[in-house]
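Example 4.3 (complexes with small molecules)
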Amino acid sequence: MSIFEHPSYDGHEQVYFVTDEPTGLKAIIAVHSTVRGPACGGCRMWPYANSEDALRDVLRLSKGMSYKNAVADLELGGGKSVIIGDSRKHKTKELFEAFGRAVDRLNGTYITAEDVGISTDDMKIVHSVTPHVAGLTDIPEASGDPSPITARGVFLGVEATAKSSFGADNLNGVRVAVQGVGHVGEYLCDYLHAVGAELVITDIHEDSLKAVQEKTGAKIVAPDEIYDVEADIFAPCALGAILNDETLKRLKVKAVAGGANNQLATPEIGQKLHDMGLLYAPDYVINGGGIINVASELKARWQGGKHDPEWVEGKLQKLKATLTEIYDRSKGDDTPPHEVADELARLRLVARHVEMA
Ligand code: NAD
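Answer. The structure with nicotinamide-adenine-dinucleotide bound is encoded below.
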């Protein structure tokens, strides 16, 4: 299949295939859109079975970043990168230096950051050869780990979802089933517990579950049982594609609102959720808190100043209001929320194209 006809190509501005023989680096950097600013999105290291899987993943993630940044109204475009390899076996200083040189050759068109399999230490190495890195920990403008801010955004989104779905003014006594208590999921549980929500949690790591249970009194279920839990809200905070024909049959909730990327296995699943009367929070809308935090660091670096948590909180509140508007339009037009969100993102991208013309 030719790249231009790839189902996930969607008019990407650039797709940059990188190899570096001495270090064994194989990577793809995808720049979906720079109309709103430099394409910003993390780098994922994953042992993809083949380059086709890597290409599909990077194209979908990169487009998702364009939409996420547009809906969060950030002056950033969308891009993403993947390194093909096992993050537990194949990491070397030289590999990340080679990746950094590749990012540098794009001259700021793409700004990289951490994603699955990549740590802040890896990004420190990348930063030693290129300035085009965000989410740093060791510069004066540093915004640090984005996960608590992603979780805060998801928490506000759960509030908006509970209000739109079943009229709850607060989350006291609302039952939330959380899939994955890693970086985002654990902070989300803290937020939910603090306002009296009742938690049911799962993870593949026993120690993570115990830690959250001790703090919040959450009920633990086995990973596969989370889809059968009777709850008000299901909050996926682990994997993508968990909303599919198989899991839809099992869900006993009123709404789905969580931090994981690419939750819908296919767009048709979003239509099915809507037809079932389940409110779905479009993932790239509700999980935009992390990139908002990163944008604050970039703003400080470009305009002078410091990372600004107040600006970030204001943006999170606006994102909550945007999510409520998406739900209102979804109900008014009888259109699934993910389609309303896609349309909003596309309109914002087209509007910027027109401004620039
Ligand atoms: P993480 O790796 O820290 O946490 C994921 C957790 O899910 C881990 O505890 C893992 O053990 C658990 N898990 C894996 N497979 C599971 C399964 N089958 N059943 C139950 N639990 C399982 O990652 P994270 O940073 O918390 O990110 C979680 C999700 O949120 C990802 O989809 C990520 O892309 C998305 N996201 C994260 C951020 C961020 O700021 N970290 C921002 C936007 C989106």
